[in-house]
């Protein structure tokens, strides 16, 4: 893995590279001399010199990001005699302060610029003469002071030099001194942020952030005071480069466009982020512990990922945090997870943060924070807390969808263990409330607010707006409704934390909101893999809304409702397309309600069942009785909404009892039984089968029949296949048949023609027992085969009368054999009819799933099935399948 600013060994350089670094050393020596950072000793100083306090110097050779050579002369600061007595702390800007600066600059439309100071430590203002710091000069520096080659020379440091432990502190103090002299105001919240205000209006006109020797400057273009302050700063320090609108700052790429400021780390990711080298065989040993070298590589990868996640990738923060927790007991599985995350980050290297140009008055911007927790998802059952915070127009708290500028986020281990999820949620909410306070204070101070003790909370409450979002219903109720001791929480620690958080929120007038899990933006910072919300947030150009749901409907339930709605829409769309296709192809439209009633009446059905999308979402099927009620009877008597699981005992809803068998993959019932022979407990109906079918229930003497058209929505190609020979049917009462306008069923029913009353019907399917004629092709050998099969099945009234299914595509097997088939066992043929006796199973025993050799009906995308009614054993004739 590549290393940043890796030191180059002089001995390993080629001749051309040495010449390149000679030039870099010459530039460094020139800067040392021009800054007067060292001087020669006076004769009196050499007499009293304590050589044990003289520090050594060395050259550090590296290459810049551009690849050019860089040479730096440094002091070995650990040899400094006053090492423990000097102030060494030097601040750098926080991520929150830097991104608050960018958010304010984007809102006001300030021009963004950046400057890099050359040899910054050598340009410090304070003198180090009194500290008595001496160094042994290297031969290149000693030669500039007149020393002979090989002669040892001692020099005295007069300014901060690279390598001294307090050099960064001296540089920071020098920068602060210069900025304060040019009317900049240092903020209390971040010692590296400075503001410039108009003398008359006290409006914010410029901002500066300093990161060691890099300056991030933005201001109102053309403003006299800002331009003068910038010129004085450029005159005081020597800048190596000065860029605007598009530049690198603190490892991030900043770009300014008319709609705001963008920050990304694409170059950083592509250059420094690499996977842990691991062979395929090693990667399969998931439970094996990592070696010391692999653990070192894992730490390096996670360090690089951590910088990316903490600066521009909040959706990766949780995974990085959880992986860091697992380093002590890391296995190959841990390394595989890290490599997987590396690949994911590299795929989306161009992901960026956006700070929008709102162009709003600063008091119209609100602070919004989402806080969440995950219970026991870390090693040793520790919990994870996280929050996401940013700025957005105040209308977001009224339910409007607005652009949000993210300025802070965090994913970390909960400070303490908790008994339950409420304890973890309280810790997250406490941290989130504190983030609300911080961001409001930063925004207030950047825009000229005076931070005074005793008045800060009052000023924030009256000049800023904040909102804290949570998805824990229990904690929200405890905060807003429960006035009991410690808000009614079982854990005293959690109770005290919540009491303090509520009191602080009330003082600041912070809006407390409950949101469902689908609207919790911080969910991705507490659980690995839950990045969907944050990814949607970025895809939607950082737009989000906060809607307070008075019904407190959970996110899972809302997700379920949305899926049910989508399913209903898909079903309705499919049925509409299928109906249009059926009309176009001259096919029966069984999904049309009027047509279904028409067919049910023609088929002599006693009841009809419909599965509508709105009823299906409730788990109901509407059953309507077609024969046992008068037309004037109310609908609530003639039709019942039957739960899908109770379809097997539908008669009980109409005053009777009957049992049916479960639906198979391609058949209405596994078998048809007599009421007297029915099992005591009916099987459940397959809901998936009911969903994709219209179901017709037909009472037949001592049995039941269900006619089902299976039309799976894979495509709309008209493919119907005949199933398992023909289906038996008990003849109707001729009188009732005439009343329905259907031809009577008799020995010649296979060739019977429909009556005149059917001539105007939309369907010409005919009654069960006749061959459908619509779409028929007289010259089609397949149709002729079907007619032949029907004519061979003629019999008396008490004998079985066979029907066939319409076929629009050649089948995988012949529709019927013209020669006498060989006798085979009951398991040989398709199972479409009743069982018969043990030695007379006409179609192979129980069930409708065909199991003939070489036959595959389970893969048929559309199958028309007409199972037969149960026939008393005394009246059963030998079926065609008995051989």
TrEMBL record:
Ranges of compositional bias, category Low complexity: 861-872
Domain Reverse transcriptase Ty1/copia-type, chain residue ranges per copy: 53-282
Compositional bias segments (type: Polar residues): 748-758, 786-805
InterPro entries: Anticodon-bd_dom_sf, RVT_2
Superkingdom, taxonomy of origin: Eukaryota
Basic residues bias: start-end ranges: 873-883
Residue span of region Disordered: 731-883
Basic and acidic residues composition-biased segments: 731-741
A matching Pfam family: RVT_2
Name of protein: Copia protein
Species annotation: Symbiodinium microadriaticum (Dinoflagellate)
Source organism phylogeny: Eukaryota, Sar, Alveolata, Dinophyceae, Suessiales
């Amino acid at each position: 893995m590549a290393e940043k600013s890796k030191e180059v060994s002089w001995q390993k350089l080629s001749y051309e590279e040495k010449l390149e670094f000679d030039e870099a050393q010459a530039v460094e020596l020139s800067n040392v001399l021009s800054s007067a950072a060292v001087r020669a000793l006076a004769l009196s100083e050499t007499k009293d010199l304590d050589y044990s306090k003289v520090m050594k110097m060395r050259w550090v050779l590296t290459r810049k990001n551009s690849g050019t050579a860089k040479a730096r002369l440094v002091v070995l600061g650990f040899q400094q005699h006053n090492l423990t007595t000097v102030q060494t702390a030097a601040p750098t800007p926080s991520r929150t302060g830097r991104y608050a600066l960018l958010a304010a600059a984007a809102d006001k439309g300030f021009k963004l610029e950046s400057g890099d100071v050359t040899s910054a430590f050598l340009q410090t203002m304070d003198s180090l003469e009194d500290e008595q710091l001496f160094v042994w000069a290297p031969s290149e520096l000693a030669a500039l002071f007149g020393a002979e080659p090989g002669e040892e020379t001692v020099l005295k440091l007069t300014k901060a030099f690279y390598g001294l432990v307090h050099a960064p502190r001296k540089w920071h103090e020098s920068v602060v001194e210069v900025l304060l002299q040019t009317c900049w105001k240092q903020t209390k919240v971040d010692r590296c942020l400075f503001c410039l205000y108009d003398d008359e209006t006290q409006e914010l006109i410029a901002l500066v952030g300093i990161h060691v020797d890099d300056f991030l400057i933005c201001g109102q273009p053309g403003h006299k005071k800002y331009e003068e302050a910038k010129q004085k700063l450029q005159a005081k320090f020597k800048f190596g480069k000065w860029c605007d609108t598009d530049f690198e700052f603190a490892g991030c790429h900043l770009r300014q466009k008319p709609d705001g400021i963008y920050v990304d780390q694409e170059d950083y990711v592509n250059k420094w982020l690499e996977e842990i080298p691991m062979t395929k065989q090693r990667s399969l040993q998931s439970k094996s512990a990592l070696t010391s070298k692999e653990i070192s590589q894992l730490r390096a990868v996670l360090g690089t990922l951590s910088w990316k996640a903490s600066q521009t990738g909040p959706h990766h923060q949780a995974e990085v945090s959880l992986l860091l927790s697992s380093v002590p007991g890391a296995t190959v599985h841990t390394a595989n997870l890290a490599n997987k995350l590396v690949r994911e980050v590299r795929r989306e290297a161009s992901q960026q943060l956006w700070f929008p140009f709102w162009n709003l008055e600063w008091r119209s911007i609100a602070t919004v924070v989402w806080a969440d927790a995950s219970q026991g998802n870390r090693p040793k059952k520790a919990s994870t807390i996280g929050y996401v915070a940013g700025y957005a127009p105040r209308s977001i708290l009224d339910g409007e969808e607005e652009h949000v500028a993210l300025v802070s986020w965090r994913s970390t281990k909960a400070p303490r263990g908790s008994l339950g999820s409420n304890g973890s949620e309280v810790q997250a909410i406490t941290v989130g409330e504190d983030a609300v306070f911080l961001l409001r204070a930063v925004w207030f101070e950047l825009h000229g607010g005076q931070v005074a003790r005793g008045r800060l909370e009052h000023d924030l409450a009256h000049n800023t707006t904040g909102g804290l979002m949570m998805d824990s219903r229990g904690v929200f109720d405890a905060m807003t409704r429960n006035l009991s001791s410690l808000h009614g929480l079982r854990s005293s620690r959690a109770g005290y934390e919540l009491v303090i958080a509520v009191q602080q929120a009330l003082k600041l007038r912070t809006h407390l909101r409950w949101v469902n899990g689908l609207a919790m933006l911080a969910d991705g910072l507490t659980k690995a893999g839950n990045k969907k919300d944050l990814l949607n947030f970025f895809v939607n150009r950082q737009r989000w809304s906060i809607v307070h749901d008075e019904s407190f409907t959970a996110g899972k339930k809302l997700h379920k409702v949305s899926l049910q709605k989508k399913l209903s829409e898909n079903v309705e769309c499919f049925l509409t397309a299928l109906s249009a296709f059926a009309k176009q192809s001259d096919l029966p439209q069984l999904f049309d309600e009027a047509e279904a009633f028409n067919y049910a009446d023609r088929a002599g059905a006693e009841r009809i069942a419909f599965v509508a999308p709105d009823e299906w979402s409730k788990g109901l099927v509407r059953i309507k009785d077609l024969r046992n009620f008068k037309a004037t009877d109310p609908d609530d008597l003639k039709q019942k909404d039957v739960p899908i699981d109770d379809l097997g005992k539908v008669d009980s809803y109409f005053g009777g009892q009957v049992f049916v068998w479960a639906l198979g993959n391609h058949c209405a019932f596994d078998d048809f039984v007599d009421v007297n022979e029915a099992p005591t407990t009916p099987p459940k109906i397959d809901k998936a089968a009911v969903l994709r079918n219209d179901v017709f229930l037909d009472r037949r003497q001592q049995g039941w029949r269900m006619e089902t058209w299976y039309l799976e929505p894979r495509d709309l190609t008209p493919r119907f296949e005949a199933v398992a020979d023909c289906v038996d049917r008990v003849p109707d009462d001729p009188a009732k048949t005439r009343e329905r306008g259907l031809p009577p069923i008799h020995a010649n029913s296979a060739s019977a023609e429909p009556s005149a009353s059917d001539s105007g019907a939309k369907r010409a399917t005919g009654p069960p027992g006749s061959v459908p004629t619509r779409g028929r092709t007289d010259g089609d050998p397949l149709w002729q085969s079907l007619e032949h099969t029907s004519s061979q099945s003629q019999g008396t009234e008490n004998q079985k009368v066979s029907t066939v299914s319409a076929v629009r595509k050649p089948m995988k097997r012949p529709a019927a054999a013209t020669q006498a088939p060989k006798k085979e066992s009951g398991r040989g043929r398709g199972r479409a009819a009743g069982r018969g006796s043990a030695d007379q199973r006409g179609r192979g025993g129980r069930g409708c799933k065909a199991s003939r050799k070489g036959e595959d009906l389970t893969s048929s995308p559309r199958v028309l099935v007409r199972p037969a009614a149960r026939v008393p054993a005394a009246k059963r004739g030998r079926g065609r399948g008995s051989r």
